Structures are given as structure tokens and as C-alpha cells.
Amino acid sequence: MKNISLTKLAIGLTISIFSISNINAQSVDQILSNGEVRGNFQLDMQYYQEDSLIGAQDVPEKILSNGFLNLVYTNGPFSMGVRYESYLNALLGFPDGYKGNGLTYRFASFQKKRLSVTVGNFYEQFGNGLIFRTYEERGLGYDNMMDGVRVKYSLARGLTVTGVTGVQRIFFEYGEGIVRGLDVELSLNEAINGFSESKTRIILGASGISKYQADQDSRYVLPENVGAGAGRINLTHGYFNVNAEYAYKANDPSADNGYIYKPGEALFVQTSYSRKGFGLVLAAKRNDNMSFRSDRTADQQNLLINYLPALTKQHTYNLLATLYPYAVQLNGEVAYQADLIYKFDKGSLLGGKYGMDIQVNYATANNLDTTHLNDELTKRQGYESKWFEVGEVYFKDFNTQLTKKFSKKVKGRFTYANLVYNKDVIEGKPGEPTVYANIGIADVTYKFNMRNSLRTEAQVLFTEQDQGDWATLLLEYSYSPHWFFALMDQYNYGNEDSKKQIHYYNASIGYNNGGNRITMSYGRQRAGIFCVGGVCRVVPASSGLYLSITSSF
Q1: Where are the domains of the chain?
Q2: 214 burial type by CB count under 10 A (0-12 exposed, 13-18 middle, 19+ buried)
Q3: β-sheet bridge partners, residue 292
Q4: pLDDT digits (tens, 9 = 90+) for 300-356
Q5: Is the peptide bond before 481 cis (omega within 30 degrees of 0)?
Q6: Which of 285-313 are b and which e, b meaning 16 or more Cβ less than 10 Å from the residue's Cβ?
Q7: Which end of the chain is more exposed for a tag (fewer CB within 10 A), N or C?
């Protein structure tokens, strides 16, 4: 899109932010002549009603909202952009630091031959993120972007070096710690003559990160520079793939680990085999004292430099996704996951006329097997742990999902899950019993014709702990390609307290047109936990009218 006011706004804002004073309006028009602008907008707004029955609090403002607009301009090898965010005030459950309006993201970048440079804000990840990953997860209110400089350079064929330096975002400000890092990645198939046609593909990588924060603590002598390093390999041969990375972090006393001087380390290994109709993924992870922040006093999800992936399935059904999701334990855990996918062919005994897919998944996370150190020479280390032994169970999830088309009009997806959930550890609620739950889900869609369909979703959760048994029923009617209507009721019928056997009803309507989507709903939202990739936030109970508008262009 060229020569439009929105484009000029993007360019003008970015130019003003970077104070390029010698570019006038005529120069902007010249810049725009061969460029284009892209962006997206989102507004989430809720009108809150007090509902003492479910514990929904009174909101003085009555209406709370989150909104943002991204604008990115590109012209050949040059690009720049801005993001404006608004929280007036932020929706319930979002961190208190999100309050007000402002330009929170601005960058300019260019690429010339083998060199790429970005100044301003950027997101980056080294390897699997064990020592460095900056990213945004808007639904969680999570954003640890960098503000500084990133340089990428291709030193030779198959060899790329990335360097970063800057500070991290915390709400509308930046943390005091300075983060510096370097990553080197080598593709052997590209770098070595005669290896390019090999069926075995090998990529090697190594990275290092250092953070600096002044020692202003009168209680301890704290390291002001803390370094971490990692090495990785990605190997592919035919249907097989192996992705492995080991990371080591120097001693980093912090609020997370109780200011002990123990080094941290992490190992991530994932192997997969995939071919038509069959897939198998096996993964293992061990992290020990790997909380890594640019501010040693930060808590919750603030100013994390690294990312420790959760080896658990990311469920989408509400009884699985929001009642008992798993949050990664930064100070230490051992986790395993196995995921099997198999497709029964059409015409086979189990596949029938239309075929059938089955997925079986098992995941577990345990505490480290640790021994606390009390000797005067070693107690500053806090504890020692055994590599090949595990402690108490944090989380287990065995689930299987069957997807089958019964006719041209009817298809279904059926899920069973068995969960073990250590509420004491995961939610930080000492004394709470471990939850053992069984969940069954039937998701059936009936297609009347090319435009009209009805989806019915029934869920049940059985447990003798926590709040007892739950049931959910959802009816969703779609009129393609623009409209959908949905009714849902979630019922805590098994609660031991009869006053808490509550219906959480909700009605919603949505409209889609091109890149625009408008959704409106009314009803109750129970308190729970919302997680993405092992990073979570608490969602309080609420009641009222909710509106969401998204647009991309």
C-alpha cells in the first residue's frame, strides 16, 4: 500500500522517535514511493459486573481495556516500525504495571549483503532459548523484548554470527540490568563442499550470554557480571531428527534461589521420527537452578532472560487448559514427554470409509533429587542434585485423542486424559492436596451444507480433590464465512459445598470479514490459570460483557 496517510504516520512516528531531523516531508514521500506498510490492531474490552456468587470483584472503572496497534514499513532492505499500547486500565488478571498509554516498541533495521543491523526494540532467540529468548505472549501480558542493538553477519557459507546488547522491557519501562550475547550457528552441509547433497543434515550452534547488574545489596557480595553458555546440535537423516542442547550458567544469587551461589545447568533433548501416517516424538529436559533474570530481585515472569520449555501437551479444551495446566519450575525439574500420532488409512479395518487419526501423549515433570548442604564450606551452594534420579511428582498427564469422520456431514474428536497435579508446588499453595483427575471430552461437528454447521462439545472432569467434579457443554453454530454463535455452560456440580455448585454460563457471537474479526460475549468466567508453553498467569473470576476487535492489513 503506497502513498497513504497511515503509511506516512508510521514513517513519521518512527523518524521522530529516532530523531532523524534532516528528513523532511518531501523526503518521506520519496521513501514511500517504493515501500509498503503492514500492521495489525487489537482491542479487548470488558464491562464488569460484581457477582458475589462466583467471587467476581467490583471494578470501580466498570470498563477495562487492553489495546495495541503495530505499524511496520518496509522498502527493500530497509524496515522500521512502531507499536502503540493502551491499558485503561488493564483487564483483570494482567500485571499491575500495565497501566496507561504509550509507544512501547520502535525499531529500524537494514540489510546489506551479508550484514543485518537492528536498532531499537527486537526479539531474538539463541537455540532452544535455554540461556536467551525474548518474546511476546500478549494473552499472558508477557513481553521481555530487548532495547538496544542486534547485528547479524554471515561470515562464510553456512556460518552465521549474531550479537545482541541492550536492556529488557518491564511494562512501560526497562530493567536496570544490561544483557550482552553472541550466537554462532554452522550448517555443515552448506559449509563443506561435497556434503551439500548428503541425506544427513547437521547444524551446530554455540551461544553465550552475560548480564551486568551493579551490586547494591548490603547483605551479600554479589557477582555483578553473570555469564551463561550453551552448545547445541540439530541432526536430520531421512525421517529422523535429533535436537539437543546443553546450557551452563555461572553462580547467580537471586530472589528466586534464596541467594545461593550454586551454578545452574540445563539439558534439552528431543528426537522425532515422522513419515506419512505416523509420527513419534520423545523429549527429555532437566533444569537445575536456571532462573536467569536481568534483575536478580525480580519475581513472577518479569525480566527473564531465558526460556525453559514445558514438556507437556498444550491443551485447548477449557477443563484441561485452565483448571490444571502446568507451570515450569525455574529452580529445578526433570521432565519427559512422548507423543505418538498414527493415521489409520481409508478402507482399513479401524479406518473405515474415511480413515481415523489417533494421538497418544504422556508427559511427566518431577522435582530434582536434592541434598541440602550445611557444611560451612559448601552451604553457600545451597544443595547438590543427582543427575539421574528424580524427586516428588509435580505433574503427570496421560491423554489420548481420536479423530474420525463418520460421514460427509459428521466428524468427531474424542479425548481422554488422566492428570496428576501437585497444587502445593505448581500454584504455591502449601498444604493443598495433590489433585488426581480424569477428563473425558466429545467434540462433534455436524455440517448441514457448505455454509452451515453445528459443533457440540461435552466435557466432564472427575476428581475427589480440590473443587470436585466439573462438566461443560458448548453449542457453536457457524454460518460461513462470516458468522458464529455459541452458548456454553460450565458447571461445578461435584463441589462438596453446595453453595459453590455454580453454573458459569456464557453466550458469544462473532463476525469475520477479511482481516477483521469482532467477537462479543456475555457471562461468567471462573477463576483459573492461563498458560502458554509453561508460562502462566492467574485469571480471576469475572462477570460481564466482553468485546474483542482484531484487524490485520
Answers
A1: 1-37+49-83, 113-309, 311-553
A2: exposed
A3: none
A4: 999 999 999 999 998 989 898 889 999 999 999 999 999 999 999 998 888 889 999
A5: yes
A6: bbbbbbbbbbbbebeebbbbbbbbbbbbb
A7: N
CA dist 297 to 125, 256, 301, 302, 416, Å?
A: 23, 8, 12, 10, 42
The Cα–Cα gap between 176 and 126 comes to 22
Condensed to tens digits (0 to 9), the pLDDT of residues 243-297 reads: 999 999 999 999 999 999 999 999 999 999 999 999 999 999 999 999 999 999 9
CA-based angle 186:190:194, to the nearest 5? 130
Neighbour-count burial of 377, counting CB atoms closer than 10 A to its CB (0-12 exposed, 13-18 middle, 19+ buried): exposed
pLDDT-derived band at 4 (thresholds 50, 70, 90) equals: very low
The answer on pLDDT for 225 being more than 60 is yes
How far is the C-alpha of 242 from the C-alpha of 280, rounded, in Å? 12
Distance in angstroms (rounded) separating the CA atoms of residues 421 and 531: 14
- Extract the C-alpha cell encoding 397: 498427564
Side chain identity, residue 173: E
Instruction: For residue 194, list its beta bridge partners.
Output: none
Length of the chain: 553
CA distance 505 to 484: 17
Burial 499-509, CB ≥16 within 10 A → b, else e:
eeebebebebe
- Distance between CA 231 and CA 542 in Å, rounded? 46
Residue 42 CA: distances (Å) to CA of 1, 138, 288, 515: 20, 10, 38, 12
151, 115 Cβ separation under 8 angstroms: yes
Measured CA distances, 544 to 56, 58, 106 (Å): 10, 11, 35
Would you call 462 exposed, middle or buried from its count of C-beta atoms within 10 A (0-12, 13-18, 19+)? middle
- Strand-pairing partners, residue 535, are 532
The reported pLDDT for the residue numbered 189 is 94
- Rounded CA-CA distance 174/152 in Å is 24
Segment 235-240 shows an average pLDDT of 96
Question: Cβ atoms within 10 A of the Cβ of 546, count?
Answer: 19
Phi/psi class of residue 3: alpha, beta or left (left: φ > 0; alpha: ψ in -120 to 50)?
Answer: left
What distance in Å separates the CA atoms of residue 364 and residue 390, rounded to the nearest whole number? Answer: 11
Q: What's the per-residue H, E or C state across 117-157?
A: EEEEEECCECCCCCCCECCEEHHHCEECCEEEEEEEEEEEC
Percent above pLDDT 70 for the chain: 93
Cα torsion angle, 527, 521, 417, 492, sign: positive
Task: Tell me the pTM.
Answer: 0.91
